[in-house]
Amino acid sequence: MASTADISRGMIIKLDGSLYSVVDFGENKTARAAAKVWAKLKGVDNSRSIEKTWNSGDNIFPVRVERKNFQYLYKDDTGYNFMDNETFEQIAIQENLVDAPQFLKEGQEVSVLINTETELPMSAELPDKIVLKVTYSEPGVKGDTATRTLKQATVETGATVNVPLFVNEGEMIRVNTKTGEYVERVK
Q: Cβ contacts of residue 110 below 8 Å, gap of 6+?
C-alpha cells in the first residue's frame, strides 16, 4: 500500500476498478486547510482521462507493471500478434491497446506493458520515432520550396503522412509515432 506522497509520473494506479497512468500531479496547500494532492490520469484499460484529488497522506493502490520487448508478427481476427524476444511466447493484443497501430510493420520491436498481478498485457508502445519507406507520393513541383508546403505520402504500413515536397517515392523517412508527423529524411 502506498500514500499520495509516493505518486510519480508514469505510475499506474487502480482507481474505482480501472487502471490509470499518472500523466501529471501536484500539491495544493492553503493556510487554513489540509494539503491536497491532485493528479491528471489517463486510462490504461479504457480511453478516459480524468483528474482526481486526494487529501495529503491518503492511500493509493499502485499496480506493478513490467515492460518487456516483443516483436510484432502479424494481425488476424484475434488482434495484433506479438512474440516475446526471450521466451518466444506469442500473445494477441486488441487494436485499442496498441499505441499507433497504423505504423506497425512486421518484425518491429515494441514495448509491451504487462500487469504482474494478472499477467495480462495492458498496452503495446512503439518507439517514439521509426523509419518507414515511402511507397507512394505525388512528385513535388520544382521551385515550390519558398513555403513549408506539405503533401501526402503513403508509407509501407499503409498509413498516410504529410511530408515536405522534396520527399519522393522509395525514400526512407523518420516518423514520430506519437503525433504521426514527418521528422526527417533518412539516407
A: 69, 70, 71, 72, 82, 104, 124, 125, 126, 127
Torsion-angle region of residue 65: left (phi > 0), alpha (psi -120 to 50) or beta?
beta
pLDDT in tens, 111-136: 998 988 888 898 888 999 999 999 99
Same domain, 120 and 134: no
Task: Decide: 139 and 148 in contact? Cβ < 8 Å.
Answer: no
Predicted pLDDT at 145: 61
Residue 61's pLDDT is 92
Domain check: are 172 and 133 in the same one? yes
Compute the distance between CA of residue 127 and CA of residue 144 in angstroms, rounded to an integer. Answer: 33
Q: Domain with 19 in it: what CATH number? A: 2.30.30.30
Domain count, the chain: 3
Q: Which residue has the cell 525514400?
A: 171
Distance CA 178, CA 182 (A): 11
